Amino acid sequence: MMADKRSFEEKRHDQLTTAPKSTEDDAAPRIEVTETRDGTKRIDILPDAEVRPGKA
After folding, report:
1. pTM of the shown model
2. What are phi and psi of 28, to 5 degrees?
3. Cα-flanking dihedrals φ and ψ of residue 5, to 5°?
4. What distance, in Å, lies between the first and last C-alpha atoms of the chain?
5. Predicted confidence (pLDDT) per residue in 8-42, tens digit
6. What is the DSSP string of 19-37?
7. In a domain, 45, yes or no
8. What is the chain's percent helix, strand, coil content, to nearest 5?
9. Contact 26, 16 (CB under 8 A)
10. How far apart are CA 28 and CA 52, in angstroms?
11. Cα 47 from Cα 28, distance rounded (Å)
12. 46 and 31 in contact (C-beta within 8 Å)?
């Protein structure tokens, strides 16, 4: 078995763009993760994200 040396981003892109009707926009980032000095992580939904959590 060969080791897959692709990065997480490359694997994510491949997975999100292999469907027959998918586009590059499907693989666009939807969140931004930042970490403070004390280790707290903040996850923000990007304002231009096509898919958002919650009610439509």
Report:
1. 0.57
2. -65, 145
3. -95, 10
4. 43
5. 989 989 999 999 999 888 888 888 999 999 999 99
6. STT--GGGGS--EEEEE-T
7. yes
8. 25, 20, 55
9. yes
10. 13
11. 12
12. yes
What 3-state DSSP class applies to 44? strand
In which domain, by residue range, is 48 found?
Answer: 29-56
Joined tokens for residue 19: 């469907």
> Using 50, 70 and 90 to split pLDDT, how confident is the model at 54?
confident
Q: For the chain, how many structural domains are there in total?
A: 1
DSSP 39: S
On whether the CB atoms of residues 18 and 11 are closer than 8 A, the answer is no
Burial of 4 (0-12, 13-18, 19+ CB in 10 A): exposed
15 lies in some domain: no
